[in-house]
Amino acid sequence: MKQQGFSFDLSQSAQAAAATQCPAPITLVRGFLNVEQQQALMQEAQHYPFERPQIRVYGQYHPIPRSQVWFADKGCDYRYSNLFIEAVDWPKYAQRCRDMLAREFGLQSNGVLVNRYRDGNDTMGWHSDDEVEIEPGSDIASLTLGASRDFLIRHKQTKARYTIALTSGDLLIMHWPMQQAWQHSLPKRKAVSDCRLNYTFRQLVPNFHATG
């Protein structure tokens, strides 16, 4: 049965796979989401409970330079950068994206971190998605909506750097063991005035933070 706004042809997905000069274990699929799908997600995101939590830096607390929300299955709470984030129930279209990734790529996920960058001043520093509760050997899928932004990748040992311009609808899959050898970031871009949404789908060990 066709799901309105979220039908997808696998042959189109395969044809959209783009080559990159980056040797990191990634798959880039340009235009994975069509315009209708992008619009459905953008409209849904207007009602997401975004927050800007504070993190401690050199003894002082500062709000993160973006806003975020964590949608996940029950028991899939998440901790990173000393922040503990309780799972919020999946919204309709984020859930459909999750289903598409499982169907088209066999990529399993039980949570998605949605980051909202208001403009080019909002940013994400160098990091790896290597938290202990992430399922060992699992891949992470990143979906871009809205403004185009440069996505930087850096090897931890050689410090070799690569830049990939991600545009609305693009899918970037970071395959295991990328997080062990590489870091990534989203630097400031003063010329960017529009909002960008990024969905990163992850597979966590269920009930990792359960107590009692």
Automatic annotation (TrEMBL):
Protein name: 2OG-Fe(II) oxygenase
Source lineage: Bacteria, Pseudomonadati, Pseudomonadota, Gammaproteobacteria, Alteromonadales
Range of residues in the leader sequence: none
Fe2OG dioxygenase domain segment(s): 108-205
Pfam families: 2OG-FeII_Oxy_2 (PF13532)
InterPro entries for this protein: AlkB-like (IPR027450), AlkB-like_sf (IPR037151), ALKBH2 (IPR032852), Oxoglu/Fe-dep_dioxygenase_dom (IPR005123)
